Give the backbone structure.
Amino acid sequence: MSDMHNSQNAHGGHGFETVAIHAGNTADPLTGAVVPPIYQVSTYKQDGVGGLRSGYEYSRSANPTRTALEENLAALEGGRRGLAFASGLAAEDCLLRTLLSPGDHVVIPNDAYGGTFRLFAKVVSRWGVEWSVADTSDPASVRAALTPKTKVIWVETPSNPLLGITDIAAVAQVAREAGARLVVDNTFASPYLQQPLALGADVVVHSLTKYMGGHSDVVGGALIVADPALGDELAYHQNAMGAVAGPMDAWLVLRGIKTLPVRMDRHSENATKVADMLSRHARVTRVLYPGLPEHPGHEVAAKQMKAFGGMVSFQVEGGEEAAVAVCDRAKLFTLGESLGGVESLIEHPGRMTHASVAGSALEVPSDLVRLSVGIESADDLLADLQQALG
């Protein structure tokens, strides 16, 4: 697998683990505190009319705790500007309203988070933005979906919930030829495993709720861009629209990021063991994990990712009711939505996270179970899945 994600040159001469801990985390000048303080404040004393102290006037516009997180995010993704939002969907909404105008067109993947699809299909489309679906694992499919009005190509890799893999560099070339922006949702991989900007993407999107926060205790979102001018434009809209990350949320994500590398290593190790066990289980008809050699995106994932991540999906014999029963019987795997926390989660996408795509081109198989494999003892996780499968 590629070593580019730990490239010291991409991080100002320091390794990823060092950057995760130190970027944006300068010692407090007043007390020397090694952790950025939580600036739970709405407004700031000005040094005369229009004299902003360190550039702060109102916490919707900027807050020191959020600034620390945004600097950290930009450094980890190798970008020029990072912006933190109240949720992943708030980040996506700001991005789309910044990049698009009525009449524009977007290519979206045939496998994506249900909330992202809902934003396109039920919200942005009402504003006169058109969209069409492509299999982003096939650059020719993306090219065929383009129109003269295409402004954005949207990619998730690995995708949610079918763990599809898109060759970011190949689709970036398609985007460049079309004069469109390539947006990559990097939530499932995290910047530790994959850095889309280095592969040609224009914008990286994160739900900070997931692996970046890592502890199921905060909701947040982020945008990271390579182009400073686009960063300025997004920052203008972030302030104008106002869905910013609060200081406590920013602080929690900053704390989570410090252990991101060691957590992702364990998530990936555990998920590999889970996928191997499931692939041999008599009641499992298909396992979706890019680390398996038989996965159609395995070679691309090995090229552009450091490891294969902590998400595993699988299909079971017996159809939808059997899949729901597996979810209900699990004990150590908690039945719940979301993902990326230290604890393992199990869910039925068709009835839970992806109910909004029912009846669309993004509808997921009814016999599908999705796992967020945590960092518990792998033997305990395997035993729980074996009893849940019966």
Summary: The chain has 13 helices and twelve strands. The longest strand covers residues 150-156. Residues 2-9 have pLDDT under 50 and may be disordered.
